[in-house]
Amino acid sequence: MADKPSVLFVCVHNAGRSQMAAAWLTHLAGDRVEVRSAGSDPGDQVNPAAVEAMAEVGIDISAATPKILTVDAVRASDVCITMGCGDTCPVFPGKRYLDWTLDDPAGQGVEAVRPIRDEIRTLVEALIAEIAPAPAAGTTA
């Protein structure tokens, strides 16, 4: 992995799970990780229930927009994470591929999205601990 690992989150519409995961990773890891998200069939907008659920924890994803999955995005990422949606990424040697099995928030209200948001946070925290642990006190990154 490069000095600064890069992570790509993928779900079909890039409107819910992958957007929340990217926002959590950016929020929790700061500039220690490069973050991307994309979808094979991007939606028109980010799921409003996902926007609301993330706002409840102080993270604003209202300006995020779904993006198309490209070969270049996969090639530029160290870790590619699909979100249990049956999407596949182009496979390149040396990349790490994970699939996180998560419920789909599409069409759900914020009450149903909250547990998905919280599960994503737990997964992202474990990912950060593995690929971009915080520097020890008194050291620089």
Structure overview:
The chain is of the alpha/beta class and 141 residues long. It has a single domain, classed as Rossmann fold, CATH 3.40.50. Helix content is 35%, strand content 13%. It contains four helices and four strands. It has helices at residues 17-29, 48-56, 71-75, 110-131, and strands at 6-10, 34-38, 79-82, 96-99. Strands 2-1-3-4 form a four-stranded parallel sheet, covered by helices on one side. Helix 1 links the parallel strand 1 and strand 2. Helix 2 crosses helix 4 (110-131). The longest helix is centred in the last third of the chain and has 22 residues, at 110-131. The protein is globular, with a radius of gyration of 14 Å. The mean pLDDT is 91.
Explain the layout of strands and helices.
Blueprint (H helix, E strand, L loop, with lengths): L5 E5 L6 H13 L4 E5 L9 H9 L14 H5 L3 E4 L13 E4 L10 H22 L10
Parallel strand pairs: 1-2, 1-3, 3-4
Helix pairs in contact: 1-4, 2-4
Features:
141 residues, alpha/beta, Rossmann fold
Which percent band covers the strand fraction?
Answer: 5-15%
CATH fold-level name: Rossmann fold
Globally, the shape reads globular
**Percent in helix:** 25-40%
Report mean pLDDT, rounded to a whole number: 91
The CATH superfamily label reads: Response regulator
* Distinct helical segment count: 4
Query: How many extended strands?
Result: 4
> What topology, given as strand order, has the largest sheet?
2-1-3-4
Q: What distance lies between the first and last C-alpha atoms, to the nearest angstrom? A: 15 Å
Radius of gyration: 14 Å
CATH architecture: 3-Layer(aba) Sandwich
